[in-house]
Amino acid sequence: MKILVINAGSSSLRYELFSSKLVSLSEGYIQRIGQKGQTKDHLTAVKNALDTLLKENAISQLSEIKAVGHRVVHGGEKYTKPTRITTSVQKEIRRLCKIAPLHNPPNLEGIRACQKLLPKAVQVAVFDTAFHQTLPQKAFMYALPYLMYEKQGIRRYGFHGTSHAYISKETRKLLKKKSSKIVTCHLGNGSSITAIQNGKSIDTSMGFTPLEGVPMGTRSGNIDPAIALKLTEKRTPAQVDHLLNHESGFKGISGLSSDMRDLLKTRKTRKKSQLSIDMYTYRIAQYIAAYSASLKGLDAITFTGGIGQNSGYIRAQICQYLTHLGVKLDAAKNRTNKKLISTKGSKIKVMVIPTDEEKEIATQTLRLI
Ligand code: ADP
User: Fold this and answer.
1) Is residue 224 annotated as part of the catalytic site, yes or no?
2) Using a 6 Å cutoff on CB, does residue 188 contact ligand 1?
């Protein structure tokens, strides 16, 4: 028996095949879906992925794939766990496109493609928002008229849930403590910080959409909401949306790039590269400190994602604001991306753990079936 994991984005598709023991057998990434002269659509992309798996002998026939785990970004308030995809579940994912117009539609395309090409396999949705459904109401509400929540579902949902769930599980294994207070920092193109008590998410920095929280590659993160209104004086709402999601963050501040590697390379010669880094690390440290209040204590801080896993400089910049809490980094271990990068005497353990969202989706899919 094999499990296929599908992560269908607007113009790309990531896939990974796992054995029943959750060993990765093969993976691939198909880009530029829907662009001229490239892969036509998600159906073609899944077909190409399956052809590759057959050609590589990762499977000898399609019927070996007994289940497909799909990453679905938005599960609203309804889905708190991985869910077998039935007609009514599919309808609900479609209904949620209203609040996740960028993410849920391509996820649905991936589901439809797999239903067509692997009709006998069980299709399972693993939602990015599900892990954060344990947030208490005081943390997920916005102080808007209550009707906005009741009628329009305007509340904090949080994202990157599969990654935070995986990282918190791995951190707890290393902590070897029954009760634990952890802050996980997923720092990639998108970045989010989560407060986790005894394995449950109790607060997270992304909100109604992934735009809230710390500055990111191209997203602004938190701004005074009145700025968005001011911007609509000369722009349409769609233009403001584009500006905040695609032209801001590192790209907007540095005027150079949304890629952290470019900022690190140029930080000594370009003031705006250093400024982007300083704004990013300052805000992340503030979230960690705020969440130590939410958790009423802190046992561990864990870094993951392309930036969190690879940049000792960024981690050191963040942790320098946290020494009063008792955080002490071991400089050599931090520089070489070791798993435990705090010193023996540090009151709070600081860790680096590579995320594996695909494996977590496969684990949850296998558990369900
Ligand atoms: P995504 O959020 O799209 O999954 P990743 O988690 O791969 O993306 O993170 C991408 C980010 O990680 C980019 O900003 C990239 O510059 C950064 N990154 C990758 N490798 C390094 C590195 N060695 N040092 C610093 N940043 C890195």
Assistant:
1) no
2) yes
> Could you say which of 41, 51, 128, 278 is catalytic?
128
Per residue in 339-363, is it b (16+ CB within 10 Å) or e — as a string?
ebbbeeebebbbbbbbbbbbbbbbb
Please count the other Cβ atoms lying within 10 Å of the Cβ belonging to residue 87. 7
Q: β-strand 349-352 against 300-304: which pairing, if any?
A: parallel
Write the residue with the smallest CA distance to atom 27 of ligand 1.
307
DSSP tag of 49: H
Rounded to whole angstroms, what are the CA distances from 130 to 157, 189, 293, 345? 8, 21, 23, 36
CA dist 166 → 87, 162, 244 (Å): 29, 6, 29
Q: Are 70 and 110 in contact (CB under 8 A)?
A: yes
Whether 10 shows a pLDDT value over 90: the answer reads no
Query: Is 102 a residue whose pLDDT tops 90?
Result: no
pTM higher than 0.70, yes or no?
yes
Are 245 and 251 in contact, with CB atoms under 8 Å apart? no
What are the Cα distances from residue 223, in Å, to 96, 212, 214, 353?
25, 8, 10, 30
- 299 pocket-lining for ligand 1 (C-beta < 6 Å): no
Q: pLDDT at residue 219 above 90?
A: yes
Report whether residue 190 contacts ligand 1, using a CB cutoff of 6 Å. Answer: yes
- Cα–Cα dist 265/182, whole Å: 31
pLDDT digits (tens, 9 = 90+) for 242-297: 999 999 999 999 999 999 999 999 999 999 999 999 999 999 999 999 999 999 99
Q: By alpha-carbon position, which residue is closest to atom 12 of ligand 1?
A: 306
Of 225, 184, 220, 224, give the one whose Cα is nearest residue 201: 184
Closest ligand 1 atom, residue 305 Cα: 6
Distance, CA of 311 to chain centre: 18
| Dist CA 218 CA 259 (whole Å) | 9
Structure tokens at 158: 């949080």
At 38-88, the pLDDT tens digits run 889 999 999 999 999 999 999 999 999 999 999 999 999 999 999 999 999
Summarised one tens digit per residue, pLDDT across range 169-192 is 999 999 988 899 999 999 999 999
